[in-house]
Write a structure and sequence with these properties.
single chain, 289 residues, alpha+beta, four-stranded mixed beta sheet, 14 helices, 4 strands, elongated
């Protein structure tokens, strides 16, 4: 089993190993150094955000139920079950994996709730045991229908409410599709577009060199290092916008809208679903950078 697990980890990592053989420092920077040292560039003070994320499960019925049932499952396996040691060790492994992954994700700065989806499979296995333990004590052990139905209804209701809350104030894929369509209409053939990764994908256009990863532009490194990493800095992007390198632009981020002064760079603008599309580049006034 150990060999199978090692193989399962190495095989999907083969492309990274191949890239590391060609450029070890670049791969090391992207996988390790950026994650350890530069993630806070966009989050100068991540502690309040991290605390909010790490305590978010207290207000989330699905996460709370999953965690509690997993704990009950471990207690049942350790104290109540008459399973063989080999069978119990399999469930203990799930518990250690869940704890280890949680600890690793908790120390990332900043961390996000979506990261903890990696814990769900291992906690879910233990939660099934916990559900069985509670259901067999409260209801008929041979009829697990009602405990499963009650839990399913609670989780389904929580999911429906969560989706409703997110859809009311979040961008959807259809919003990005509308932005992409408008950009396609106003961009002259062969001209560059200043926008975000999702829109480049929908347009089936390769991002301009150095703009493949939006979170990299705030890195303040030597020009030679940025070139080696294929990163275009914010200052360089602003100079390119001012020089008319981009015929059109679009963003769904208010910070980008303000930092790059897109309203002052282009004559025309169209607002779509909380996003803005710009075209008709305007040269900067004389003496104005």
């Amino acid at each position: 089993m150990a060999a199978a697990s090692a193989g399962g980890a190495v095989i999907p990592f083969l492309p990274v190993i191949w890239l590391a053989a060609q450029s070890p420092w670049v791969v090391w920077f992207n996988i390790a150094k950026y994650q350890l040292s530069y993630r806070v560039v966009y989050w100068p003070d991540p502690l309040p955000h991290d605390l909010d994320t790490l305590t978010g499960w207290l207000a989330d019925p699905q996460s709370l139920l999953l965690g509690l049932l997993a704990i009950f499952g471990v207690v049942y396996i350790a104290r109540r079950s008459d399973w063989a040691r080999e069978r119990r060790s399999e469930f203990y492994l799930c518990g250690w994996l869940a704890l280890g992954i949680t600890a690793e994700l908790a120390v990332a700065h900043p961390t996000f709730g979506r990261y903890f989806c990696l814990v769900t499979p291992w906690a879910g296995i233990l939660a099934v045991v916990g559900l069985h333990a509670l259901g067999s004590r409260v209801l008929q052990p041979a009829k697990p229908f009602w405990p499963v139905l009650i839990l399913s209804l609670i989780c389904a209701g929580a999911l429906a409410r969560s989706l409703g809350d997110n859809l009311s104030d979040s961008l959807t894929w259809r919003d990005y599709e509308a932005v992409a369509r408008r950009l396609r209409e106003v961009t002259p053939p062969g001209k560059q577009i200043f926008t975000e990764e999702e829109v480049y994908f929908l347009l089936r256009r390769r991002p301009p060199p150095g703009m493949e990863f939006g979170y990299s532009h705030k890195l303040e490194l030597a020009p030679a290092v940025l070139a080696k990493l294929h990163i275009t800095s914010e200052d360089m992007q602003k100079k390119q916008l001012a020089a008319g390198a981009f015929a059109t632009a679009a963003t769904c981020d208010n910070d980008t809208l303000g930092e790059y002064a897109l309203d002052k760079t282009f004559h025309q603008k169209d607002d779509l679903h909380g996003c803005s599309v710009f075209w008709d580049w305007e040269p900067p006034a004389p003496g104005k950078k």
